[in-house]
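Problem 12. The chain below contains 246 residues. Write out its predicted structure in token notation.
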Amino acid sequence: VQGIHDALPLLGMNQLCKYKDNIDYTTANLIYDGINYYVCLTCFIDKDDTVYKRKNPIIGIDLGIKDTVTCSDGTKFNISIGESEKLKKLQRTLEGQIKGSNNWNKTKKKIRKEYIHITNKKNDVANKLVHNLLSIADIIVMQDEQIESWRQTTNSADKIQHSILGRIKSRLSYSDRVVILDKYFPTTKYCSNCGNMLSLELNDRIYECPVCKRKEDRDIHAANNMIYFYQQIKDRPGTDQTLKLV
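Solution.
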């Protein structure tokens, strides 16, 4: 580091020590996020030949506001990471300080550091949840939900802001074992048992078909329908990872 001639302590080396000699380093970059310095290493390790046995050959997942993730097998994940009490206290302190003063600048720096901490926490939870989902199924089917549009069409802007829906969707889309259905598939309205279409309001949490009397949790019903639609069209010519309704 320019201007620093003494040795600096480096935290997190235990992440690399477990690989011993089976690791090759390529590049190293020093990153400054405005608060702390980080060393970003690009390296190669031997591929793990372990054959993973997953519980389900295929699952559907429904992203939502009430429950962050609902799986077709009934498993639900409800995650919300809002502003910390420490951040709220710092914001109140900032309001009583003179803009541009030394104390004001110190508080601004603390606020920025707390925001970085919250962002890192959201990223960590999203990474762990996506890893968990990918470890329980060979194929995951999800819908191309327009999460940003939910802010305008619902009164849940704060819940969406505190959720990690965008991170989950983005990370899952990178996997070649995740199938993304077009947003126009009627996964909530359609009854795969009898073919009936039933419109639901946002506060309707139970799907009950008036024709065949099928009754199911709304989100679990949608997740199972994603699997149904995928299996109906997966063998069509030209089908790719993003399946569209034609």
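Discussion. The radius of gyration is 23 Å. Students who got a different answer should revisit the alignment rule from Section 12.3.
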